[in-house]
Amino acid sequence: MRLAKRLSVIEPSMTLKVTAKAAELRAAGVDVVSFGAGEPDFDTPAHIKEAAKKALDAGATKYTAVEGTPQLRKAAAIWMGKAHGFEISPKEVIVTAGAKQAIFNAFHVVLEEGDEVIIPKPYFVEYHFYVDNFGGVCKLVPTTSDFNLDLAAIEAALSERSKVILINSPNNPTGRVYDRSRIQALGSLLEKKSRELGREIYLVSDEPYAKIVYDGVTVPSIFQAYANSIIVTSYSKDLSIPGERLGFIAVHPRLTPLQDVLGGLVFCNRTLGFVNAPATMQRVVQRLQGFAVDVSQYRRKRDLLCDILESIGYQFVKPQGAFYLFPRTPLEDDVAFVQELLAERILCVPGSGFGCPGHFRIAYCVDDSVIQGAAAGFAKVGRKYLS
Q1: Does residue 120 have a cis peptide bond before it, meaning omega lies within 30 degrees of 0?
Q2: Could you tell me which residue, 2 or 341, shows the higher pLDDT?
Q3: Where does the chain have alpha helices with state H?
Q4: pLDDT tens, position by position, 246-267
Q5: Strand 116-121 relative to strand 162-168, pairing
Q6: Which of 225, 157, 159 shows the shortest CA–CA distance to 198?
């Protein structure tokens, strides 16, 4: 049987490979420390479980409206309005089966064959597949040495085929929050280029970690910076319900053409095989806007890991959000370095999987004892290369 040609170039996700390897080793009786998957270690909070039970008892398992329950859309719009500083209508919020579907839908609506999507690197491992699904072309641009937006690189990448700038803040894999001045400057740049090119360029921000930030950092509003903008997000991380796959798209009220885009997003929900986000959890989270798990626990884990690696001599930029650390590898070949960590039963993800060789990602959303238990292995491998 001959399969579709596009499948011939598909490579397995680096993070999924590491997660599968951890499961394989554990099944074989090998005690491993896995920092692969970005899945919160915390149990789902008790009050969320209780709310889910009540929703089930009330029969909350029927179909919802394709665009999401009115109650959730209203609640999310109110929350987003408060967070971004101006009124957002429930009509401008479309509920999705997680942030991945939200990005998928947004690209389906705005991309034509050959349109370019500019993505700062490092970037989430599957972005280029999302772009390719609709015949788009990825244009990867570097960030600064501390992983902030490089506006000169973005401007140089803009062309008559540019259609979307896709950013992720707080960033996976670096934990970087792009700062307000750069977001404002990016908005101004896109306004200027849109006029020059005579076409809309959309700014799409992937923000599932927006409530997981540290040290007084806040995530700047792209809505305040640029009208042709779309925010995609998820409840998976901040409510610790990753398996429920629930999120939404919020569209700027002044986006052009607003009604066409909104109509297209609803059409995507109907026709791309998703139809409805999970009905029960829609009814649960409508009362949980703005809530997040105790972020101080993630901050403690970050600080514990950073202290360990800094004492060994690893170089890294301290994360401002999310739950990832992206140190430099002390040898050029990041895949080879990760293999050396694996020999010490530590599983991490090579930076090349995120478009940034010479680094490796540690997902520190694990128990403190896991981080402490890995210290000796990190030190043993590090001593071979770090002076």
Answers
A1: no
A2: 341
A3: 14-27, 46-57, 70-84, 98-110, 127-132, 151-157, 180-197, 222-225, 258-271, 279-285, 295-312, 334-343, 368-383
A4: 999 999 999 999 999 999 999 9
A5: parallel
A6: 159
The single residue listed with the structure tokens 């360029």 is: 201
Nearest to 312 by CA among 369, 250, 380, 246: 380
Task: Give 13 or 119, the one with higher predicted confidence.
Answer: 119
Topology of domain 62-285, CATH: Aspartate Aminotransferase; domain 2 (3.40.640)
Exposure b/e, 346-381, CB count within 10 A at least 16 = b: bbbbbbbbbbbbbbbbbbbbbeeebbeebbebbbeb
Contact call for residues 302 and 365 (beta carbons, < 8 A) = no
**How many other C-beta atoms are found inside a 10 Å radius of the C-beta of residue 292?**
18
Q: Where are the domains of the chain?
A: 5-44+293-383, 62-285
Q: Take residue 3 and report the two structure tokens written for it.
A: 């399969």
**pTM of full prediction above 0.90:** yes
> For tokens 């500019």, what's the residue?
118
| Domain 5-44+293-383 shares a fold with domain 62-285 | no
State how far the Cα of 52 lies from the Cα of 3, in Å rounded to an integer: 41
**Which residue matches tokens 């990448």?**
157
Rg (the chain; Cα; Å): 21
Quote the pLDDT of residue 59.
82
The residue length of the chain stands at 387
Give the domain 5-44+293-383 fold: Aspartate Aminotransferase, domain 1 (3.90.1150)
**Cα 10 to Cα 173: distance, rounded to the nearest angstrom:** 21
- 77 and 92 in contact (C-beta within 8 Å)? yes
CA gap 246, 101 in Å, rounded? 9
